[in-house]
């Protein structure tokens, strides 16, 4: 606090105090500018990572391939650990206790435009209903999307989902084409399927569901945070927080157990922001 009371001081002292005041004010302005800069960068303070850190995250993971084979295609099934995609999503939602975070470029689980709804669309509808019911279980649903006028996102938002719009057109002149889930920061899904009823019935889709893998989920959550923090921005900030930088990469891959087999893994969002490509999961045993 600067107070100048010239009446009881001589001229010299007065000037001195004034200088001090100006210096303090300048310092205050500088720190204010600095604070603004810090807060405007991406996720400096971030949201909490639930106390899971690189040191105590789980790397004893279970992985299953989740695929959708088109209804009208009969394929030889070799009896290995493949599960239908709809079962994979259902099991992830059953695990959820705290949060479900979803990135998908399409939200078309209900075949609104098809009357009457064909049987093939039932899985999509079921998944949508399950997402709506997360609210009653106290599970947070967060969705990052580049859709501006999706009736499904509006319906989910009305049921407590937090939906953030990412303007990929402004950011990269592209679209948001990643497709993944993070459940309780512990279980993840990465794959080709969008939140589209066709992905659960008519299309060939392939993905992985990885359970009990909070180490890998830490990095996928950073990708999610990255999109989450870009909401309503029309430029990509040049200052980045360490909290959105990947922990693991090609040269420092995560060492983990996948179905009790030693493996290394890292996530790569290969140029997703700049070349509009999908998010791939690189798994190397
Ligand atoms: C992991 O470690 C952090 C700090 O090192 C701690 O706050 C947190 O509770 C730990 N989490 C678990 C699940 O042990
Ligand atoms: C948004 O969607 C609704 C129906 O889904 C449509 O009636 C409306 O015109 C759309 N608005 C815009 C701005 O596209
Ligand atoms: C997204 O960004 C583009 C390009 O800057 C702009 O024309 C468009 O209006 C933005 N969309 C929304 C929904 O803000
Ligand atoms: C995760 O690990 C716990 C403890 O090892 C186990 O009880 C649980 O069944 C696992 N969850 C899944 C989905 O594999």
UniProtKB/TrEMBL annotation:
InterPro entries membership: Diverse_PLD-related (IPR050874), PLDc_3 (IPR032803), PLipase_D/transphosphatidylase (IPR001736)
Record protein name field: PLD phosphodiesterase domain-containing protein
Membrane-spanning residues: 21-42
Domain PLD phosphodiesterase per the UniProt entry, residue ranges: 172-199
Keywords: Membrane, Transmembrane, Transmembrane helix
Coiled coil: none
Record carries keyword Nucleus: no
Source taxon at top rank: Eukaryota
Family designation: Belongs to the phospholipase D family.
Gene Ontology molecular function, alphabetical: catalytic activity
């Amino acid at each position: 606090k600067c107070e100048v009371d010239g009446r009881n001081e001589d001229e010299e002292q007065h000037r001195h105090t004034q200088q001090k005041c100006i210096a303090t004010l300048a310092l205050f302005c500088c720190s204010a500018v600095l604070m603004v800069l810090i807060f405007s960068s991406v996720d400096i303070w971030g949201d909490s990572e639930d106390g899971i850190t690189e040191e105590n995250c789980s790397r004893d993971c279970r992985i299953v391939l989740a695929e959708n084979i088109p209804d009208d295609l009969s394929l030889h099934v070799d009896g290995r650990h493949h599960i239908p995609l709809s079962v994979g999503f259902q099991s992830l939602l059953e695990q959820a206790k705290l949060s479900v975070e979803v990135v998908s470029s399409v939200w078309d689980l209900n075949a609104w435009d098809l009357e009457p709804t064909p049987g093939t669309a039932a899985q999509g509808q079921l998944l949508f209903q399950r997402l709506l019911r997360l609210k009653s279980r106290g599970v947070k649903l967060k969705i990052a999307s580049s859709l501006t006028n999706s009736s499904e996102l509006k319906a989910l938002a009305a049921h407590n989902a937090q939906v953030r719009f990412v303007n990929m057109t402004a950011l990269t002149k592209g679209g948001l084409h990643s497709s993944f889930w993070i459940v309780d920061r512990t279980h993840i899904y990465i794959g080709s399927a969008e939140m589209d009823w066709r992905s659960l019935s008519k299309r060939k889709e392939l993905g992985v569901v990885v359970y009990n893998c909070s180490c890998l989920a830490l990095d996928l959550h950073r990708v999610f945070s990255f999109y989450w923090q870009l909401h309503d921005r029309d430029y990509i900030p040049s200052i980045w927080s360490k909290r959105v930088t990947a922990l693991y990469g090609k040269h420092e891959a995560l060492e983990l157990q996948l179905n009790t087999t030693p493996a290394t893994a890292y996530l790569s969002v290969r140029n997703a922001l700049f070349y509009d490509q999908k998010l791939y999961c690189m798994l190397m045993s």
